[in-house]
Amino acid sequence: MDEKQKKPRRPLWFWLILGLGAAVFIFGLGAPRTLSSGNEENVTYDVFLTALEEGKVQEVELKSGTLYYTLKETAQPAATAGPQLNFGFRIMSGSSKKETVYTVTAMEDPNLVDRLHAAGVTFSENPGTGNMLLLILLQYAVPILFYIAIFSFLFRRMGKLGAGGGLMGGFGKSNARSIDGGEVKTTFADVAGQDEAKESLQEIVSYLHNPKEYTEIGARMPRGALLIGPPGTGKTLMARAVAGEAGVPFLSISGPEFVELFVGMGASKVRDLFKEAREKAPCIVFIDEIDAIGKKRDGFGGNDEREQTLNQLLSEMDGFEGNSGVVVLAATNRPESLDKALLRPGRFDRRVPVELPDQSGREAILRIHCNRIKTEGPIDLAAIARITPGASGADLANVINEAALCAVRSGRHAVKQKDLEDSVDVALAGKQRKSMVISQREKEIIAYHEVGHALVAAKQKGASPVHKITIIPRTSGALGFTMQADEDERFLMDKQEAFAKIVTLTGGRAAEEIRFDSVTTGASNDIEQATGIARAMITRYGMSESFGMTAFEQMVNPYLGNDTTMNCSQETAARIDREVIALIDKAYDQAKTILRDNRSKLDEIAQVLIARETISGQEFMDILNAPVALPAKQEETNE
Ligand code: NHX
Ligand code: ZN
Question: What domains, with CATH codes, occur in the chain?
């Protein structure tokens, strides 16, 4: 990333020292007095008058309200010698001429001139007008200069593209980070698992490659494309890849950067951005998080600054002729909040969804990141892709990096499959807390809880197979977890499967109750999840007999979390609550039935889990399907 900088940057201390230097310079020149200042002594006006009347005063100088005077040689008090250094001799040159200058605050005294004249004193007034001018300069100009210095420093920091002349070089610049054509190394090959998005953008690439082909036929290229998708799916990467593929410059700016500090700056930044873009055309302008400026303009009050910025953006996008070669790409994860004006044809008329990757997409993404690290032994990325449903490209990149860090931590030079698997656990539930001491009784509760989940899952139709059970506590606060993983990715969930999920979630608590006849707070997370699924079945998926296919809740934003809005009467809300309770009760009963029917396996597997702390899904199934009880294999507790 090359941030252009034509002027060398002058830091704040440069200006401070300059100002200080100027001050010293001016002050140094600013006070030339005829009376040399040896020792100065402040006296009162009556002392001065007495000396004058006694004829002791030699010379008087009046300067800006202060009288400076010296006494005649004979009148000098004897003991007022200059500073005596202990070197045995005096260093000060012309020590004999060192006389005391007395200073008096001048008083309103109209007869003073006459009196001085009568006493035969040499007297003069030093008007100090030149100095006054300098003094005024100092008083007013230096602080102003100082502020200018500070402001220019701040603006320079804000406007990273500090090009352009003048002290205010950073002012009003667009902040866009530009990457010149040759330097965008990213291509579509670096973007995995987004084939449809690539296809949509391919047209823009080929237009930028060969605009003539399009202009000849009279086609108008889309001026902008909106990349829509959840965080971490690689929208920025995708935009960069378009520039890389087309071999054109890439100007990138983030939406929130437009709304900064000063009113009116946003609009001017938009202007500057497009001016720069037209100079560099053909090029790609990328506006990340455009929702920051592109939010719907609402009637009441609102944010004037943001609206001005948006209006400027709209008019700039209309402004450049269809074939000027500037293509604007923007990214957002809240398309529903964007202003309609932005989305109409001629502006962002293309919407390119950038979705979370599917299983094969995840594998492809993992492969790309895995190519950058050293590995050893067999690496099964498909297995990692299988256990990371819902992970974004950024999550997967993090999994690979975490695995590499883990390998380094254990003193190895390459990443093994085990590192990758552990790193998925870290992403899911945090790091292991091996130092945490857990009592034997609590260990038992945790083990029964987790085996409860696993057993209920295994004994139900429609539940995903168990992948791993562990009772090693994690930094997220989880004391243990049971991981399930489907062989193939699922896109739909039938009613039976949804209910099986709730039953599985209640299995942990059910095991606690059956074994210990008491329950703990630990199931809170399970309860929340179970309730969420039950609610969704009733209010969104039409899976309840009494309500049928009516939606009582809507997703607020499909890309950001699971926020929903309630949309029903209070009576219905109360009925929904009762139905949710009934559904979960039914699930809990079913879980308890399953566990009671398999009580011996529950005890057996829990004992194995306590001994080994972690067991794989395969080991779990082996014990479950074994006709006779296996003794807990204490010696196999590894790592
Ligand atoms: C607490 N933790 O908060 C203690 C330390 C019942 C054996 N007082 O249901 O660990 O109670 O099947 C991800 C997932 C915190 C993050 C679950 C963070 C749960 C987890 C609360 C097992 N496994 N509960 C479970 C558990 C707890 C919690 C989580 C999380 C326990 C249970 C945590
Ligand atoms: Zn649980």
Answer: 32-127 (3.30.720.210), 177-212+220-353 (3.40.50.300), 359-429 (1.10.8.60), 440-638 (1.20.58.760)
